[in-house]
Amino acid sequence: MANPNGIGASVRRREDQRFLTGRGNYTDDFKRLNMTHAVHVRSPYAHARIMGIDFTDALAMPGVVAVLTGADMEADKVGSLPCGWQIHSKDGSPMKEPPHYPLARDRVRYVGDAVAVVIAETREQARDAAEMVVVDYEEMPAVGSSTRAIAGGAPLVHDDAPDNVCYDWHLGDKAAVDAAFANAAHVAKIDLVNQRLVPNAMEPRAAMGEYDQSTGEYTLTTTSQNPHVTRLLMGAFVLGIPEHKLRVVAPDVGGGFGSKIFHYGEEAVVTWAARKVGRPVKWTADRSESFLTDAHGRDHVSHAELAMDADGNFLALRVSTLANLGAYLSTFAPSIPTYLYATLLAGQYKTPAIYAEVKAVFTNTSPVDAYRGAGRPEACYLIERLVDVAAGVMGMDKTEIRRRNFVPKEAMPYQTPVALQYDTGDFAKNLDIALPLVDYPGFQQRRAESKARGKLRGIGFATYIEACGIAPSNVAGALGARAGLYECAEVRFHPTGSVTVFTGSHSHGQGHETTFAQIVADRFGIPIENVEIVHGDTNKIPFGMGTYGSRSLAVGGSALVKAMDKVERKAKKIAAHMLEAAETDIEVKEGRFTVAGTDKSLGIGDIALQAYVPHNFPLDELEPGLDEQAFYDPKNFTYPNGCHVCEVEIDPDTGVTTIVSFAAVDDFGNVINPLIVEGQVHGGLVQGIGQALYENCVYDEESGQLVTGSYMDYCMPRADDVPSFTVRYHEDQPCTHNPLGVKGCGEAGTIGAAAAVMNAVVDALSEYGVTHMDMPATPEKVWRTIRDAAPAPAMAAE
Amino acid sequence: MYAFTYQRPTTLADAAAAIQAEDAKLLGGGQTLLPTLKQRFARPTDLIDLGAIPELKGIREADGGLEIGAFTRHAEVAHSDLVKRVIPSLASLAEGIGDRQVRNMGTMGGSIANADPSADYPSAVVALKATVTTDRRTITGDDFFTGMFETALEPGEIVKSVRFSRPDKAAYAKFRNPASRYAIVGVFVARFGAEVRVAVTGAAGSVFRAEAFETALAADFRAEALNGLSVEADGLNADIHASADYRAHLVTVMAKRAVEAAG
Q1: Which DSSP state fits A672?
Q2: Is the CB of residue A128 less than 8 Å away from at least one CB of chain B?
Q3: What is the DSSP letter of A568?
Q4: Residues of A in contact with B175 (CB under 8 A)
Q5: DSSP 3-state assignment of A601?
Q6: ipTM attached to this prediction
Q7: For the whole model, what pTM was predicted?
Q8: For residue A159, with 0-12 CB atoms within 10 Å meaning exposed, 13-18 middle and 19 or more buried, which class applies?
Q9: Residue B53's closest CA among B12, B106, B112?
Q10: Which residues on chain A are in Cβ contact (under 8 Å) with B185?
Q11: Which residue range is the domain that position A267 belongs to?
Q12: pLDDT digits over A357-390, tens only?
């Protein structure tokens, strides 16, 4: 490698210096002259009519600047928060899309729904006054779960959504699936719940609105993963502000995991209120508000069946899923349990026929949308649990049944029966790398040793594939997306040879400032210190669709390469002029421009200087400057894939599950920075393990109250809950359709881990006849399962 | 939090006078009270910080056991060579309270006066035949805890110190709530000659003694002696993390582990 900080180098993250020394600049760190503070008055009820709001006393409280309600927004013609994806039901009808106002108007639909905002000189004064706002609620019956939502006679969350159904959608060839089941030798079945999760980004959401009376310009500083999207959605649909008068800044953002993709009501409230009160308005969520109002993830109830022939070859898969969308449609909510879920149900297998039905329903709970993995963990969990059940039905080894059904490397590109075309992948290779890492042949001996100590040991596999690099705009558009999903980059060489890159993707923990700089340093042979990556500001970046779906490198990085191509082409012209050679004779390597066959050459720095000091440029043919921009729209999704193996030990006396080892073998295509990739995998695995063993967002089914509204009850995984991970990747199967050959790594850990852990837990309990357990495998659940399964065959034999 | 008047008396007498204010609250390490205030769940007029009163501090040997000042932080108990030598099980219990931040701030007096049903110290107070000395009187450990978040303390009464007896053998075993890491069940087993005490925290509204366990262990101080014994699930705490019968089961498991750890 020519450049020590180029592609493939484990460069330590350049941004960590400021993060680890407390010098990051997060939204709540911004202070403005005359800034005010907003506190929202939120509904304590899951479902109620607002009969009246009396804020006379609140207005009289010290420091209070204003109290604003939904009626004020209505008077100002503030619109509904828009939904970015439209799904059509089986019968062709569009999904139900009820309005979602930033401040509720006549009805509240979940605990935490905002009904008013108090603006005061200090946050504490705003809180004091918010407690004085008297809202006259008439409580209504609530729907706290998806199963209750579709039960006959359930209360309606929205009057115009009969039976609480948003859409009833399907994908695949039902007739072919039915026929395959009719001829199946064996069928494996499973019923499972993919429980609701709270994203829990370390930095709570925050937003600051500003309005400049002299220019008519608004500025929103916000915790966003995609500021341009927020500008478009809020500007065009909610507040009616044209793009050139609205700047959205997403500065340092402390994690998102999807929850900061969406345009939230608070962003519109502070921006609108800033003009109304004539002062900047800042709102920062406290952790309780985060629990109540961040868009949650997952929440599926599914039934699935797998048809097999006599040899365990998969013939067909049938899946029926009930998805909870919460009280309102969050920005991308409808796409998650459909095109990001059902399209992945082929997994790594060549199952020829698949049919999936998804019924999505409204409930009186916080909206549900993308959360790390977004649909793909749900698909992976369902398939991989079902395949383990199938192995049991067939009496086959769990690795053997997978291997038998893998899409072979030679079949790539492979068209699945559920819309996607995998470009590359060598699934058997992933498994071949993983098995020695975990000493699979030695497992039975380890299990016996555990048993001798009174413990139960299990091993679990998950072979996952995901669709990332979201997304080809034409495909997404055909599937209901109301936006394009390209990415933009600008590469600006400065006169003295340093470079500023403007990317439309956004880093909120991913490390763009390092990896994107590596790509530029590598291409132009310059020190990484000479490259600055700018993101998160609509006034600086030409355009962008932001970061989610492991898309930054695959789409944003590709846009960067396209822009660098343009820079290089321009630089080549300049070099040809300076070296008095024909452009076709110029050879370029790592920023060195050489006349072929001579020792005449120039570095990119010399060229950059000349570009801005064009004393003798032939101006008809050559423009000054070296600053190029490009948009990249991917040709296909990328398909990261891998094999995760988890080994657990269970203490039957307490039901505690301990993860003994965890190995992850991943194919991310080419890797720019192995250190960052490994960190992404670690974080993802912990989140997947969190879902498998610890995390569970619980609403009371009847009252719609959030039971797990704090860390006292919502269990986050901690460092001492997880082992040291064994992480491997290979680069044998680079993506074939983007210039870097990259696939994305941000979500993989989360997608594979939950299934691997639960397969291991069920394996450990298999001697009790257990074939499935819903997540999280809490100590009590495991203990109860063991107790109720008496007498265990193995115990009886003793 | 709401506004309050902060006071930091330097003598017990001043503290006793200050606490007479209406809706005044005593502040120990603040590990329960401060989060409560931040959540606006309480609205005291005055906070009386006990941190500057010398007579509430310190650990010393007394009557063969230990006397520990009310304002002794968990970390001090955990790391005290004296505690480790005289009652190592108490040091080990303290080392397992909450997390490092909690242990560096939280105090013994604050913990027992708050009487959280899932706190660790109440089990030691009962199992180690402690007596609690206040600015007014002495209360035996057996009489101190009267219910969930309730003690024998009168309004304004201030805990000065806790005196623990030295057991021949003792150990504390707890099963943590995976989310909060408070004790779902904690069992302190202590043997004094022919007498055995088994104090259970976390499982019920308040710490209690498992008398059948004590009898069995007094006869045979081995984990196996508890085979077949269990506490009644009726009346035990139940929440989304642990039902009453699971807690009842864990009491036996943790008691056995404590006996094994006690050696």
Answers
A1: S
A2: yes
A3: H
A4: 654, 779
A5: strand
A6: 0.96
A7: 0.97
A8: exposed
A9: B12
A10: none
A11: 31-140+202-255+260-293
A12: 999 999 999 999 999 999 999 999 999 999 999 9
